């Protein structure tokens, strides 16, 4: 599969690296900065003899190289700086993503699209409107990353294997995301039987602040190792038709009482894209939080004045 990654910054380049190292396809790494994608792609390819992968990555500033891509990852745009929320990026990144969407429309309009640029849920809406991608073939990345952070914090708090912890975070990828402790488990055992309510509340709060915690450390730019891992997991589920159950920002048409917008929900991702939105039996309080988070996304979309 030909996979185009747009934006050769920290997230885009690390994603390209993870994709080729897992032999997930032929990767085109595109950016507007001359030399940047070419240099990073060559550097990556020089690791192929050591690491032993056969996939190739081409770095380019020529949009024509996007032609024929079956999957496009959009990771172009500004990352937040200390003190900024993801929402503060809305207007600046909407302009960048709109111009990228025009390129995707022109050169790869058949492609499945994964949007990463923040604020991701609103910008996924923008790309869907501009490219015209069928709604089951476009989704945003946010929930897998938020869930991985929650899982990591639970594993660290309990001193258990990271792989034994499962958890899900739904809603918009922002300060009002919805971690679901009731559905978090350690090898099948609910964390509610293993941790105190106070411990769980602290882990939830740290998860909500997870992106900002890293921005505060880095002082310039935001996270990219875990985001790239999350993107690669989405790509792999599609390319290898794994049908993983993953939280992604997807188009809602009535599920969880939400209609006509993109928000993070559990979905089955396979070769044809979003194969199913899974409806969890949420409590009234969880549902209220999810709908509140989705209303916040809707307000951002309204600011962008997108015709759905
Ligand atoms: P970065 O600054 O390192 O890279 C951004 C790249 O985009 C730059 O190389 C820049 O030249 C390129 N770019 C700008 N305009 C472009 C255009 N019109 N066409 C092609 N390329 C263009 O930033 P980063 O750390 O890689 O983050 C990228 C985006 O991903 C940010 O918006 C960030 O907030 C977002 N992000 C989202 C998640 C998530 O969970 N959804 C996680 C991490 C980062």
From TrEMBL:
Query: Domain Lactate/malate dehydrogenase C-terminal spans what residues?
Result: 145-300
Alphabetically, the GO molecular function entries are: L-lactate dehydrogenase (NAD+) activity; L-malate dehydrogenase (NAD+) activity
The record, for InterPro entries, names: L-lactate/malate_DH, Lactate/malate_DH_C, Lactate/malate_DH_N, Lactate_DH/Glyco_Ohase_4_C, Malate_DH_type3, NAD(P)-bd_dom_sf
UniProt protein name: Malate dehydrogenase
One Gene Ontology biological process: tricarboxylic acid cycle
Which NCBIfam families does UniProt cross-reference here?
MalateDH_bact (TIGR01763), PRK06223.1 (NF004863)
UniProt binding sites for NAD(+): 7-12, 31, 93, 116-118
> Could you tell me what reaction this enzyme catalyses?
(S)-malate + NAD(+) = oxaloacetate + NADH + H(+)
Enumerate the UniProt keywords alphabetically.
NAD, Oxidoreductase, Tricarboxylic acid cycle
Record-stated family: Belongs to the LDH/MDH superfamily. MDH type 3 family.
